[in-house]
């Protein structure tokens, strides 16, 4: 189950789980008896609504994170014809159909956009089969009541009995266009009869959900129609183009046993670590701290660049969108010269002719007129003004009227097309685009990564982490490996550049210990520049290169980059078993709270790492029992705090951090709508160092209709709301600003960042692989109020 952690978009099923999934209890037993005994069951069907989800195909609905167990709304409908007059949603309607007589029935479904109607051979959901549908691609639709537009809409004749009830399921997906509707009709199998919408007289509820909390889901039927984990739909998963989905050793390197710290403690000489870009006690204007955050370089390529999104956004290439639209990338290409300049001096357009000498120049010539355009003008998109040709397609209406009589006398009457949509034939004199299939060009190798800097670019949200050169990595690793074990692989190297004092590196190497056991090395090293180089800085280290260390012999690195020494930076060791506290404030977001708790339980199952804690601060949620959900989950530890009043993010985060007693542990200020990679704990720990480093990983915001399996979206380069920091440092900078940011949020993360930087901490900023923010709208969130629907 956890071997494919990063591909999960729903809680995974146990391999031994039977399919179809068994219903633990008859749904009627949840309310105490058969629906025939309860009048409230009759005349209605269960309706589950999944809002704010793009796409027009039912398969898009199945990709929704919360489908089918956690809908946005659970309600009922009185007939199988629904039109909420909304956009980007999906519906699941289910219940029982009661035939009015014995006989053969036909069903038909109509909708805008796609829909599916499933019917069981009895009252069991597990026997449901697809009976009729509208489309599969999301582009198909029908008008209301148009039951015979597609052959797939109409079911085969089905024998039903009036003494029995039949489970049904109706799935509908609506995009952001068209007149939304879905309806199911039926008729006795007679050709002369029309389909009639199934109304309240012939339907009943599957179960009564009115008294159930939103996280109570045991009663919801899971069928072939609705469950995304079924084998029927697993085969429909298309391969996505995101490089980040491909396996990378970084994703699971945390599972490799770590090398004993005592074995590498004295490998390098210690040295003072005091980078020049730290802005301790420097006055920073409000919200300007993000200008002092720098990016780190990464090796090898972690493929965090969103290449699959560059069709829509080409900001990585640092060219104006208008320029690229007009000229493309031709400036990087040098066209080869034509082989015969005399033959290619002019570009001849028009029909073939026996010889140039046969061309006529008079208005009454029966030969076509040739247009001569210098080839160099054609290549750059410029053409001289062309003489108007009688009958040409570009002449205006008035010009056509004026010359109509003369042309009708001189030319034969042209045949007029019977269909207005047929394209007219090109007239003589009309210029077609020229194509030179033999044109070749020369191009030099271009690495656009070299044009980037470690400045925190807030304009381009599809570029990936900065790439670190291989030669530099090999040189640093080679110096280190001279002193320790055999190197198997370079898993990950991260560089923070400081041209004044030296570069800091995080080395993550896979080593062979005595040729037998494979171990993991993950520690910071420092390439410290020579004292003379440091004197350029006002904060030069008075103790020299290293504490009590002698200067090493020059290496290739020293000759190339200036005299330097590889050393171990003091007070920059990260703790591999430190406790991490995830702090999340919540209010009335049952489906998201349940998903977050399930993801945290899945994280524990995938890593078996018990050194993390979930802290939920609940602002009086009414749609679920948050504390009970925590108690029922398989979490190593959790804490629950209930508060009253309106939702306040800053106050909730501060209250959660206040529950942490150990100040030498890490608090991770978190959001509810996050998909975590399996290595999230390892990533937080190695980028947080008490008194030195805080961590603000960049999350990828998924677009509407996207999922971790199909990650379309962009990097949230402006947001710092996901923040890891030691509690002692958090307290030292003053915590959250709960006075200024009370019942609003937005800006509290930048304000906290200002104070963190002013305290002398560095903030690590990296795009984290497979770290996603789920798409959601603000409708119904926290303290929002919805306008009552109109009755029309």
Automatic annotation (TrEMBL):
SMART domains listed in its UniProt record: PA14
Domain PA14: 32-202
Matches recorded under SUPFAM superfamilies: Nucleotide-diphospho-sugar transferases (SSF53448)
Keyword Flavoprotein: no
Composition skew (Acidic residues), residue ranges: 407-416
GO molecular function: N-acetyl-beta-glucosaminyl-derivative 4-beta-N-acetylgalactosaminyltransferase activity
Subcellular location: Golgi apparatus, Golgi stack membrane
Chain segments annotated as transmembrane: none
Keyword terms of this UniProt record: Golgi apparatus, Membrane, Signal-anchor, Transferase, Transmembrane, Transmembrane helix
Bilayer topology term: Single-pass type II membrane protein
Function per UniProt: Transfers N-acetylgalactosamine (GalNAc) from UDP-GalNAc to N-acetylglucosamine-beta-benzyl with a beta-1,4-linkage to form N,N'-diacetyllactosediamine, GalNAc-beta-1,4-GlcNAc structures in N-linked glycans and probably O-linked glycans.
UniProt name for this protein: Beta-1,4-N-acetylgalactosaminyltransferase
UniProt source species: Cyanistes caeruleus
Recorded name of the encoding gene: B4GALNT4
